[in-house]
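Summary for the funding panel

The consortium committed to producing paired sequence-structure records for every protein in the target list. Below we show the first two records in order, beginning with the earlier of the two.
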Amino acid sequence: MQRDRKRVLSEYLIVSAHAGDRVALDRLCRLWHADLSRHAGRLIGEVDPARDIMQDAWCDILRGLNSLREPAAFPAWAYRIVARKCAAEIRGRQSTRRIAEAYTAEMGGASVDGRQAAENAADAGAIRKAMADLPDDQRIALALYHQDGLSVAEIAVITDTPAGTVKTRLMHARRKLALALNPAMPDADHS
């Protein structure tokens, strides 16, 4: 019975919000925030990232609320937005881990054991910063290759550049990452 009241109240608040009632938006947020936050927490498994995701999710929910034509669809629609935000966070974590593993492999690391995996996770922030400092073309090529698993030929098509240029960008990006993450590493040409 409580569930039905909540849904009916949600529909009323959405209709009111469509009519411009800002108080209705606030009440709608308060009504659903705990449930949506719990969902984000279940999907992510950590409190702080779930809070950050919920801030982004609420921005998207409130921004898109006027496009929601069927107020009864709000719960499924809002849960789907939260789930997409969580999936993006998880993909980001996985790509960071893949980059760290690829970096370790490029630098001649043998197998990635538990200790090495922990070190890789600790280096994730440094890797993200080093990638952010790369020129756009190199960062894009590196991300498409290592994060998205695309081939050099596919990257060439996507970026509308020759395959040789993609290979060169990847080579320079790897060198710059290696230097940024290990400044003591010798480098002949500092490219």
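The next record, for a separate protein in the list, is shown here:
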Amino acid sequence: MKEIVFDLIRRFPEKYSVKYHPATKWGEPLIKIADADDPLFESLKTIISPTHALPGELVVGARSVITWYVPFDPSIAKSNIPGEESSLEWDYAYVETNNMLNDLSKEVHDLITDLGYAASDIPATYNYDAIALKSDWSHRSAAFIAGLGTFGINNMLITEKGCCGRYGSVITTMPFEADVRPEREYCLFKYNGSCGACIERCPINALTIDSSKAVKVIGSQLELGGAAEYGVFYDRHLCNEQIFKKVIHFENGDGDTCGKCMVGLPCSQQAPTL
């Protein structure tokens, strides 16, 4: 049954492209599984918000969390390097990928329920508190717990195929063997202090660094976020202001994105420490 589910996820972006002809091109998804009882899910109530759900709070009897990362075609990231405003290609990728991921989650849900198990169907985005700007279910954090990657100091998750893409997840009562998390940090700054390009890439200084603290925990064990421990601080409200003050409106949603701290980096398309 695992291969049936995985095959659906791997093939879905291509299937979606053939059916809807979006402007966005995607690479093959990466897929990892988390144990629904992994204690790191409980830690999200402290790290993100007390309202962040546990898998079992969303699906009674949850056993597994299936997570995936769908990378953008490299040309999309390249288009977003110049200027302060996000590129049209990047904005379209955000909107079209959210739509595609919503359809993918629905198909995974339907497949699993057809097989006799329960499953969630959580939207790709907009499942967050608009004031606190914190989510009640973080696909990205679930992907970390499942072993898809490690967090960079820009709070983006870096996978083996980089950080320029989108995440999704489905909670299910279907039992799967959990994957292991990476053994090293994929972020060069966290790994050996040799980078920090994402800080310079932010056009509004939503990422700042206190150099007196910057290397105090270099080489520590993998962290769920933890940028502040490296002397890097993230102003989510300043970031949100940048995202929404230059919104490009589309027929099927808003291009409320920026992505400047994700592009033109050693980790944009790969994990540089592998």
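Regarding this second record: Residues 2-262 form one domain. DSSP finds nine helices and eleven strands in the chain.
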